[in-house]
């Protein structure tokens, strides 16, 4: 089996696939799988650009939209994790993973899948200590705060990965595991990136949760990106070792792509499948999900709560019975947003869309969609999908516009030098075909008390027009502004892994 590893994709899918095709022609080989280590930028349209944490001048549509719309097809099966520059509104539709386009699969916030006999685990996002212990409280439309915190790693997903006991062949993370520079050529790295010296010497470079998982899971390979440079390391364990490789971003003359030739024992049937152990862990830890903007500690030794969730064979067999089949097929992909139109303006993010792929996995395992729970707590709902002539699309039910209340228009008769009774010759018709003269009796009443026009707005727009609702909305909707969910009163802490 031959797999290609890409560092930061930054939306340049066309260029990456061109590189792969060039290598295949030059070397006479066939690449079976492409793995991207974050900053994938699955931007479908101009609206998605507003959900990506980059300065406006860097909000480029790039080329993913061509593969989403069907204009082009990915020539090789592509798997990726999220980084810190993503269309977060789209990835939040798929917390447990799913197809973002035909032949392009997102692992999820954290996840484990199998390709043939190759077991691949992934951890999306980057580490920030002040958000690590919090619940998954963010939802579109994002504030300046939640636009960034939404891709920060949370303790729940790391806790779930730590329950794995079966061997992991490939592990993916966007940022590097902390302390990884001690196992490679640190001197050469500092020659190329001298600004990293302070963080390396203070042991602040990298992710503490990833460091913990590195020594706990002991995968055969670990691939990362984020720092836009190539760096290799070899980490010894009591049994075996982990080969670490970080790669650059997709630019000319940069080391952003690596081809890995694996033994044929990993080939298997070369189909994509869910991992049974991971699905069982998801099912058994669903009660630990929190969507609150406060610190949420995971269970551990010394408490009276269960903290071991490594599944037994019986547990996995029950999960298999629930799922029926573990095969992940391209047919489950659906479009949940309009395709890219160059003339379309960038608008605010629409309400979250219910993705059938997430609905399927949640119903099968009896687990919760974090985004749906967030919305339910604030009285909001996810927009459903609709199917028209076997083409899946957004539910584009037209919004009923608020009708203007009709009323009789009455004006006093004008005074003219000719003393002509214009009210007898000119008529101003109302919907009831009455004339102005018929309404003169009501003129004083209508002039002194204008008829009130009461508009009825949808619930999600209520806060925009009624000041009385501002307090309720701002305290319940955790993603509309920085003050929407008050941050917990906690002292800065360092996570010791």
TrEMBL record:
Gene3D superfamilies: 3.60.21.10
Lariat debranching enzyme C-terminal domain mapped to chain residues: 235-371
InterPro entries (UniProt xref): Calcineurin-like_PHP, DBR1_C, Dbr1_N, Metallo-depent_PP-like
Keyword Protein biosynthesis attributed: no
Molecular-function GO terms, alphabetical: metal ion binding; RNA lariat debranching enzyme activity
Localization: Nucleus
GO CC terms of this entry: nucleus
CDD domains: MPP_Dbr1_N (cd00844)
Keywords for this protein: Hydrolase, Iron, Manganese, Metal-binding, mRNA processing, Nucleus, Zinc
Domain of life: Eukaryota
Biased amino acid composition, Low complexity: 474-488
Bias (Polar residues): 421-437
Pfam families linked to this entry: DBR1, Metallophos
Region: Disordered, residue numbers: 412-452, 468-497
Example GO biological process: mRNA splicing, via spliceosome
Cofactor names: Fe(2+); Zn(2+); Mn(2+)
Presence of keyword Hydrolase: yes
Family of this protein: Belongs to the lariat debranching enzyme family.
Role: Cleaves the 2'-5' phosphodiester linkage at the branch point of lariat intron pre-mRNAs after splicing and converts them into linear molecules that are subsequently degraded. It thereby facilitates ribonucleotide turnover.
Cited PANTHER family: LARIAT DEBRANCHING ENZYME, RNA LARIAT DEBRANCHING ENZYME
Protein name as catalogued: Lariat debranching enzyme
Organism: Papilio xuthus
